């Protein structure tokens, strides 16, 4: 009945169609994250147009923009819970279809947001609504696509398949960064402030339709037994698996602060604290993201062979020791910024390439999507989504040197969790 209602085909196991499964998850995921990160890369332009400038502090509009960025993250736990429940009840593909359409609509809304000059307080209100919808979508996307990717993998390949979570995420970031760099380099400041910053969001809405079309060919990964079983309650994962939920929070805290610092906030951090030119910061970010994307499958394959825990410790201990010296070494130099970004990307791969597999291997299939989605998204909202705001706030308060220590401490705490984490790489995944 579920298959008939959702239009899903269940006549062949997904593992026999790995390329198509990877494409369905990856393309949609790339579109989701392209829209999400376009906002970050163009934050300074949005700040100028949507928020009023304070006569006392020029950082107020930028702080307001990053505050809206953080608000969007706090819808992610809701999205992870609701879309995860849809994935556990109706199927992974049904949830992925809903999330891609939500992201397309919210991206278009950002692109059409009026300026503060034209609409007054309505402008930031429209932007907040758009970001809330994006947060709902992205939270649900991670829950469903993580489960979908890992369940699509054949024996001994869960780490490799898991790595495509961040291959596709990085591809979306890369396109967003590349388009932002191209616009900044080719359009005048007046044109960028007037209409140039809107182009990436309208383009993102078009891309979401492409992602929707591709996902129609995906095959459901829930087993027939799970499809016939009674539907889980909305909070069943939290109620029956509290330890697993807390474990995902501990695994994710260090990873998410390091991830959003290095892949999203570092260009702005370098501009504010080291005087790096905006165009140089965006270019360094684009190059390092391409490098990062290429590393992901390697990390996934290494984890399939040697286990998940060694890679997680490589990431956690590495960032705990090196975050402060790397961020303090930044100065007005493109080469130094690029070196710092690429070094961080190598360490970060120990987390990103396998986080989907680690999370999926913790929960049973009945509540896997919702079980992953809520605690993961809540942790990302608390530590990842607030990273740009916290970093900018430290700068505003005259204590910019504290932010690297903040990153290092969270990574150290997660490393303590990794030390006690049971190894799951070579255990069969329950379906």
UniProtKB/TrEMBL annotation:
Coiled coil: none annotated. Its main location: membrane. It holds the Pfam family MFS_1. Keywords: Cell membrane, Membrane, Symport, Transmembrane, Transmembrane helix, Transport. It is a multi-pass membrane protein. CDD domains: MFS_KgtP. Residues 21-425 form the Major facilitator superfamily (MFS) profile domain. SUPFAM superfamilies: MFS general substrate transporter. The keyword Membrane applies. The chain crosses the membrane at residues 59-83, 195-214, 245-262, 282-299, 311-328, 334-358, 370-391, 403-421. It is found in: Cell membrane. The keyword Transport applies. PANTHER family: ALPHA-KETOGLUTARATE PERMEASE. Belongs to the major facilitator superfamily. Metabolite:H+ Symporter (MHS) family (TC 2.A.1.6) family. This is MFS transporter. It comes from Streptomyces lienomycini.
